[in-house]
């Protein structure tokens, strides 16, 4: 413990510095009194006040959350179904096509996905106008649909790999004990993959929340999500209220991570206790 | 053990309870099970024994309903099972991995199959209690599977499979995951439980000792085919082929020709063992026929002095293994053939007062009734 090589310590310091100095400086400047984002003008919380009274930002945040909630939920339902199908039904017509289609957005550049979606939505809008005479605008619906499309990929992959590594005989045992296939799904498969479903949902939620590229292509004049708003504001120079917004986001994430860490720690301690119990009961 | 074994045999009635008729199963071009026909009696423990890839597990899965035979039919208690799905068969299975539901307590695991039965909650509770008592896990009902030991998990799996009182219980390598001591104990417990419940057991195993201890009858399988069916003693003492003789236990083979048949004795020339030997004859034997003589290591006597009997041959100790309860001698005959001989260490021996050590000359001999004659 005494002699730590200086090289390792230096490397560690640089590593942490690259990771956290930008974030810390951003947090510091969010309390800056000056208008200029990079010149220190004394301590103040005025940017937080400005932020909260800025309806545009609040509206954008709410819209982002709404889109993330809806798209993550729909993507999780569809992705779970696709994942189960791909993992548990080995041979059926169109299996290769389905697995290819599901993973395509994963390797497609986002710009391409965005452009193709835009063209698709324009086509649909023209068709609707021709058929019903209604003029539709891109906005919440189109962005949500686009988000579902690409987050579906991630959920499917997570569920599929979880099922492939799971012991299939557990499902067979339920079948053997008299449950029909749909009961096995409800009683055994879904509970076993529920952690994967949850992490799939969380991943879909996060991806949707911070997406800029695809959202930019598929959104309309009325619907500005938070990342788009920040993006357009930053184009005119970084202002301290953006720093304040980012600080709030970082705080929420940090609190979340801390709670998750505590929960995981507890679960691990419980597992240790269980193992001890199993060992003792064996004596 | 003998007591349970005999009472099991009386419990087994003679009418075939499970009939497997000419069943084959192919996966693509690979034939996993090749025209197997078996008749299993009610209340017996029947073992399917074979190496990996011999088709025993596929056959078991067809009995459970997880695979459908490519050709052939399976009858259980007179009912054609061929097109009945797993969840409607009066069959339950104990999986090799136990396949306990990780998110349910021991009690819920055992009760799972009962929710499809028409019974009141109280009856269901009683049944779970009964099963927990049967496998001696009454205090562990509320534990989750990961909170109990491997041996206890095995018993939970057994209790769960027996809870619905199936007509047939399938056991896939039931003892493979247990350590040696626990395995010996569990073997007898399994037999006890089978005896108490009277359910017909079909056990798949690659472990010949397990098959011999557990089963009333067994089928030895190889490359998808059944090679021999019979009681363990029958299969061990009277194997019908070189494969079965070599698969069960260890054995010495010597090729030769029948010289003469005198009543129920046969004279056999075995060049590899350097001479003429006498063995009990088998039906259909005649002079001049090619024959394989097979003899188990424990049926050969080993001595320093010439025993002066028939069927004696001299050799040199080539290798020697001390296994505790017995010693294994590898004796090289003048012809070059190496014969394995087992000698039970009936009395305590020191390092330097063994019967024979390396390079010692010894005599090997056997009774005419000991060797097995194989014509194929």
Tell me what the structure shows:
The complex is a heterodimer of chains A (283) and B (376). With 283 residues, chain A is mostly helical. Chain A is built from eleven helices and no strands. Chain A has helices spanning 6-30, 46-53, 55-88, 95-107, 110-132, 140-165, 169-176, 181-209, 213-218, 226-234, 240-282. The model of chain A has no long low-confidence stretch (mean pLDDT 88). Chain B is α+β, with helices and mostly antiparallel strands. Chain B folds into two domains: 2-247, P-loop containing nucleotide triphosphate hydrolases (Rossmann fold, 3-Layer(aba) Sandwich); 252-374, Nucleic acid-binding proteins (OB fold (Dihydrolipoamide Acetyltransferase, E2P)). Helix content of chain B is 24%, strand content 34%. Chain B contains nine helices and 20 strands. In chain B, strand 17 (326-332) and strand 18 form a beta hairpin. The longest helix of chain B has 18 residues, at 180-197. The two termini of chain B are 36 Å apart. Residues 1-13 of chain B have low confidence and may be disordered. Chain A binds chain B through residues 167, 169-170, 172-180, 187-188, 191-192, 271, 274-275, 277-279, 281-282, and chain B through 64-66, 85-88, 91-93, 95-97, 99-103, 112-113, 116-117, 140, 143-144, 146-149, 151-152, 160-161, 164.
